[in-house]
UniProtKB/TrEMBL annotation:
Entry keyword set: Oxidoreductase
GO molecular function ontology, one term from the record: aldehyde dehydrogenase (NAD+) activity
Protein name, as recorded: Aldehyde dehydrogenase
A biological-process GO annotation: aldehyde metabolic process
Residues covered by the Aldehyde dehydrogenase domain: 24-416
Family: Belongs to the aldehyde dehydrogenase family.
Annotated InterPro entries: Ald_DH/histidinol_DH (IPR016161), Ald_DH_C (IPR016163), Ald_DH_CS_CYS (IPR016160), Ald_DH_N (IPR016162), Aldehyde_DH_dom (IPR015590), Aldehyde_DH_NAD(P) (IPR012394)
Top-level taxonomy: Bacteria, Bacillati, Mycoplasmatota, Mycoplasmoidales, Metamycoplasmataceae
Pfam family, any one: Aldedh
Listed GO CC annotations: cytoplasm
Record's keyword annotation contains DNA repair: no
Length: 449
C-alpha cells in the first residue's frame, strides 16, 4: 500500500506536469495567507520555539518571526516586477530580432529544513519557492518536534495541499521521499547530511542548493576598540546559544591582544546574561554532550545538564586544538593570536570556506585584501549576522559551506529557471546557408567582432 506521503508526491508530480507553474494570483494569495498565518499564530510559534530551544519571546521574534514577516511583505510588494520577462540587448549580428529572459518555475521542489531555526529556515525558502510558481514538499526536522507539529498543522490545514505539503518527518517517509525524482532540492543543514542528500539526488541529476555552515571566523585588527568588538561578537554568539550557521565560530586577534580580548568577552557575558532562563538550550542531550566534549581539559566551563545549557565562554586556543577542527555550533569561543594579517587570511582559507567571514577594522587595504583572497559566502565589516536583514544581499555559501543564493530576488531566481528567448522578425540574411561564398565570409567577419 502506498503511504500518504508517496501518494501526495505522485499527485503533486502529476499536477506539476499538467500545470507547470502556479499563476500570479495564486502565488499572491498563498503569500498573503502565509503572512496571515504567521501574524495570527505568533504566540503559538513563540511557544513552540520556547519548548524546542528555550528561545525567549524577544529572540524568537527578532531572529525568526520578524524576518519571515519582512520577507513576505517584500516579496508580495515586488513579485509582479520579478515575474515580468526582462528585455536584454540583442547583438548587431541578430539585429532582425529581440531578446528577453523569462523566469520559469522549476516544478516540484523539495525543501529540507533543520532544527536550529525551524520556522525561519522553513519559511524563507518556501516564500521563494511559491514566489517562483512552484509546488513544494517540505521535510522539517524531527528534533524540533513542537515546531514541526505546528508547521504541519498550519501549512497542511490552511494552505493548498495541491501546492504545498509538509511530510511527517520519520525515517520511513524520508527514505521514501529521497528515492523520488524532484525538479529541485533546497537543503539547509550540516555538511555531512548535505553530502548524503546530494549523493541521493545525483542519480536523477536533480539540481540542489545547499545552505550549510562551517567555522565562521572573526578577524580583529589592531586599529579597533577591543571592548566594543568583544561586546558585538559575544552578543552574536549568545543568540540561539551559538546554534546559528553564521555565528562567530572563532576569533583571531593580533599577538598580545588575546588576554584583554578574552576578558572583555567574558565580562560581557557576566554583565548581560544575568538570567540563564532567558538563554536558549542545546537542542538535544546528544548535542549538549558533543559541545561539552570540545572543551579543552584546562578550561573550566559551567554547564547545567538538567536543562542542556552551557555557560558561554571565550578562551585561548590554537589551530591544532580539537575545538578548531569542526564547527562548534555552541556558546564556546576559541581565541587565537596571529603575527601577520596576510598569513592568518591564508590560514583561515586552509581551514574552511566559511559561510560568513567577519572583520573588525578601519583599514580599507585589509578589507580589500580579505575580499580578494578569502573564499567565503559573505563578508561583514565591523558587525555580525546583519547580512540576513538586507533583501539586496544574496545569501549563501561557497565550497564546503554550500552553493546557490537565497533571500529576496536572489531567492526567487534560485527557485526559477532562467529561459533565454529570442524572437526573429520575418527577415533573413542567409549568410549561414549553403552555398558558402567568399563574399558571405567577408560579411560574416565584419559582423562577428
Amino acid at each position: 500500500m502506498l503511504s500518504i506521503e508517496l501518494k501526495q508526491y505522485l499527485r503533486l508530480k502529476q499536477l506539476s506536469i499538467e500545470q507547470p507553474f502556479i499563476d500570479y494570483k495564486q502565488r499572491i494569495w498563498l503569500l498573503k495567507k502565509l503572512l496571515f498565518l504567521v501574524q495570527t499564530n505568533e504566540k503559538r510559534i513563540i511557544n513552540a520555539l520556547n519548548l524546542d530551544l528555550n528561545k525567549h519571546e524577544n529572540e524568537a521574534y527578532f531572529s525568526e518571526i520578524g524576518l519571515i514577516l519582512r520577507e513576505l511583505k517584500y516579496t508580495i510588494k515586488n513579485l509582479k516586477k520579478w515575474i515580468k520577462p526582462k528585455k536584454v540587448k540583442t547583438p548587431f549580428l541578430l539585429f532582425a530580432g529581440s531578446s528577453k529572459i523569462i523566469q520559469q518555475a522549476k516544478g516540484l521542489c523539495l525543501i529540507i529544513s533543520p532544527w536550529n531555526y525551524p520556522f525561519y529556515l522553513t519559511m524563507m525558502p518556501l516564500i521563494s519557492a511559491i514566489a517562483a510558481g512552484n509546488r513544494v514538499m517540505i521535510k522539517t526536522s524531527e528534533i524540533s518536534k513542537n515546531s514541526t507539529l505546528l508547521l504541519i498543522e498550519l501549512l497542511n490545514n490552511h494552505l493548498n495541499k495541491d501546492i504545498v505539503y509538509v511530510i511527517e518527518p520519520n525515517i520511513e517517509n524520508i527514505t521514501t521521499l529521497m528515492q523520488q525524482r524532484f525538479d529541485f532540492v533546497f537543503f539547509t543543514g550540516s555538511e555531512k547530511v548535505g553530502t548524503l542528500v546530494t549523493q541521493q539526488v545525483a542519480k536523477f541529476h536533480t539540481p540542489i542548493t545547499l545552505e550549510l555552515g562551517g567555522k565562521c571566523p572573526v578577524i580583529i585588527c589592531d586599529d579597533v576598540n577591543l571592548e566594543h568588538s568583544a561586546s558585538k561578537i559575544m552578543a552574536a554568539k549568545l543568540i540561539n546559544s551559538g546554534q546559528t550557521c553564521i555565528a562567530p565560530d572563532y576569533v583571531v586577534v593580533p599577538k598580545g591582544f588575546a588576554d584583554k580580548f578574552i576578558d572583555y568577552c567574558n565580562q560581557y557575558v557576566e554583565t548581560h546574561l544575568s538570567d540563564l532562563n532567558e538563554f536558549p538550550k542545546m537542542i538535544s542531550p546528544q548535542h549538549f554532550r558533543r559541545v561539552l566534549n570540545l572543551i579543552p581539559k584546562n578550561i573550566n566551563v559551567e554547564y547545567f545538564e538538567s536543562v542542556q545549557k552551557i555557560y558561554p565562554k571565550a578562551f585561548f586556543s590554537n589551530w591544532e586544538s580539537q575545538i578548531m577542527q569542526d564547527e562548534i555550533f555552541g556558546p564556546l569561543l576559541p581565541v587565537i593570536e596571529y603575527d601577520d594579517f596576510g598569513q592568518v587570511v591564508k590560514q583561515i582559507s586552509i581551514k574552511s570556506q566559511p559561510l560568513s567571514t567577519y572583520i573588525f577594522t578601519k583599514n580599507k587595504q585589509k578589507i580589500d585584501y580579505l575580499s580578494k583572497y578569502i573564499k567565503t559566502g559573505g563578508i561583514v565589516i565591523n558587525d555580525l549576522l546583519v547580512q540576513l536583514i538586507s533583501h539586496n544581499l544574496p545569501f549563501g555559501g561557497v565550497g564546503s559551506s554550500g552553493n546557490g543564493r537565497t533571500h529576496g530576488y536572489a531567492g526567487f531566481l534560485g527557485f526559477s529557471n532562467s529561459i533565454s528567448s529570442y524572437k526573429r522578425m520575418n527577415f533573413s540574411t542567409k549568410l549561414s546557408e549553403h552555398p558558402y561564398t567568399n563574399s558571405k565570409l567577408k560579411l560574416i567577419k565584419k559582423l562577428i567582432k
